[in-house]
Amino acid sequence: MTSGLLDAVIRLVTLLDTPDDLEALGPLAVREVFYRLLSGPSGDVIYAITQSDSRHGQIARTILWIRAHFKEVFRIDDIAKIAGMSRSTFHDHFKAITAMSPLEFRNQLRMQEARRLMVSDGLDAASAGYQVGYDSPSQFSRDYSRIFGAAPAKDASRFRLATK
Fold first, then answer.
1. Residues in domain HTH araC/xylS-type (predicted)?
2. How far is CA 135 from the centre of its chain?
């Protein structure tokens, strides 16, 4: 993050404390943040993501869809259609942009939500697994351990202690 972008974001966040200033200056502050984002080192990528006909835009659309439906079972062919790509083209572009396959991405979302459910809501591992779309507690536990390096209950316990 550039110092100009950081300054613009700080100005925008500071406006949240003063409703009158926010109403008058908020649109300008938001516009400055957009300007700083687009003129910064990642501006080309950010612009490409906003273009629905670009590959980045198509993948961004599927990422939003996966985020909204990560608890569901879906086929790669179905989300490739959302992107308007063939299965193999979609898979290649998704992996190039996110550094993981669509199913790995979905599993990461599932595991993050499961961790949150266990730590914040006190759910046990099996219940958290069911809540995020797993049918098998043992498969959930294996996947969780592979991603986070610890069994679900142990990991959640460690997180609870760290946040106290």
1. 60-158
2. 23
